[in-house]
Each structure stands twice: as structure tokens, then as C-alpha cells.
Amino acid sequence: MSEDNTSSATERRPDWAAFIIAVFLFAIAGVMAWDALHLKTIAQYDRIGPATVPQVVAFGLFCLGIWTAFEAWRGDFPERDRQEVAPVIWIVAGLAGQMLLLRVAGFSIATGILFALTARGFGKRKLWISLPLGIVLSFVVWAIFSQLLQLTLPAGPLEHLFF
């Protein structure tokens, strides 16, 4: 008969990524609790005031942080798939491009570039289709918000060409 060596193979180590998430949960809970303690109360006789809900949410985040740290220590989280970096880089490049080009090129062109690069990140390889489509869709959104709703969005050469 063979020995059972599966118990050592199935034993999981602590999940360090989950510990980092637990630390962020604790940090957010601490900031919310600190901010809730510094809110001015409207009336001193009420037990429920403007700080009540932030305190409850901070307590909930603190409890989630404890739970996440406990589960991370036990290694109970399922194993994650390997992260593909290339799609994330395409999407972040699209966001950076939009932020850099928004004032210079206007809403339609900057958001069209964001649309095209995000589509590329999700697997659409034909940028020559997604870029003009993104610009047209962004121009329609700009026209609706700017002309119909009278909201201000950055206008560039394309927007000035039509309006």
C-alpha cells in the first residue's frame, strides 16, 4: 500500500495578498472612525446623529478586516488565477491618455482613445475600428451633456468644428 502524502500537499500557507487587503480594511475603518468622532453633533440629547452611520460602517469594516486576516492566516481563500499584466497596462494607458489629453484634445478625442485602448485591453485587436467608434460615441455623449443638458465638458477641436 502507498502512503498518503496528500495531507502535506493540500496544506495551504498564509495568503499574504489577503493580509494586505485586511490592512487596507483596517486603515479605512480607522479613518472613518476618526472622522466620525470629529463630526459635530447637532443636538446633545440624541443618541443617533450624523456620526452614527459612519461609526457603524467603520465597525463593519473593522470586523471584515479581522475576518479577512483570520481567513488569510488559515489559507482558506481560493487560489487566484495568474494575473495577466498586458490588459491592465492597456487600460491604465487609456486612463492616463484621457487625463493628459482631456484639456488639449477635448472630451471626444480623449475619451475615444480611452475607449479604444480599453477595448484593446479586453481583447479587441482592431484599433482602426474601435478608435473612430469610440470618438463618435464620445462625441454623441458630449453633445447630449453639453448641448441638451447644458453641462460643461472640455471641448476640443472636434467639438468646436460642429458647435
UniProtKB/TrEMBL annotation:
The molecule here is called Putative tricarboxylic transport membrane protein
Q: Supply the source organism's classification.
A: Bacteria, Pseudomonadati, Pseudomonadota, Alphaproteobacteria, Hyphomicrobiales
Report domain DUF1468 positions: 20-154
Keywords recorded for this protein, A-Z:
Membrane, Transmembrane, Transmembrane helix
Q: Which residues cross the membrane?
A: 16-37, 49-70, 90-115, 127-145
Q: Which domain of life is it from?
A: Bacteria
Looking up Pfam families in the UniProt record yields: TctB
